[in-house]
Design brief:
Layout (H helix, E strand, L loop, with lengths): L1 E7 L2 E6 L23 H15 L6 E2 L9 E4 L13 E4 L5 E6 L3 E7 L4 E7 L1 H6 L1 H11 L8 E4 L12 H10 L4 E3 L5 E3 L1 H11 L6 E2 L13 H4 L5 E7 L4
Parallel strand pairs: 3-6, 4-5, 9-12
Antiparallel strand pairs: 1-2, 2-13, 5-8, 6-13, 7-8, 7-9, 10-11
Amino acid sequence: MIGQRESVSGAHFGFTDRWGGVSAAPYEELNLGGAVGDDPGSVRTNRELAAGALGVDPARVVWMNQVHGADAVVVDEPWGDRPVPEVDAVVTARQGLALAVLTADCVPVLLADPVAGVAAAAHAGRPGLVAGVVPAAVRAMTELGADPARIVARTGPAVCGRCYEVPEDMRADVAAVEPTAYAETSWGTPAVDVVAGVHAQLERLGVSGAGRSPVCTRESDDHFSYRRDRTTGRLASYVWLDPRT
């Protein structure tokens, strides 16, 4: 259920795999995405199971309506009855509030400055990489007092550059914005390495030493992959900070 969990100086990061939930095929088992065609009751149960495995309150998790853009919003409580905004990064200075990002090949980017008490979660697909969602998230964090040199960053399971085949002109367009994303598949065709691009952007922003998952979602049967399966579930990645006493 929880494929990876890590804690650093009061900042916590969690990444799910696809197992341990209640969703039926083709979303089996731990689909956490509410907009992929799965039964809403199953998604709610899965979100409760995942939160419980992480030790967080499912009612204190903030989700996004992700649209492959670069908008970031600051939050201090779950949305409740309010509409979930169309953004690709959420940022908070509220300790104990968990931020979540959904993916099935895109790069989940988790950021935390435990000293300032600021955290962020971003959804970085190819369009978001080009649009600048990662710089937008870091900028929003610094406006709340975070220091890029203190930010602890982790990226979760995502499609690797060897598997993300794209047309040549698309690769050229992405590389014009982020040269490190230029890649080639393992079978010799044009590709984009979004993970490499995200880490290069973090480095330029002053966020050094970001950890990355070794998992390629397209290659791993333990993870959902849109590029592999098309109709499939969504993984979730979570970040939160210990409440200050």
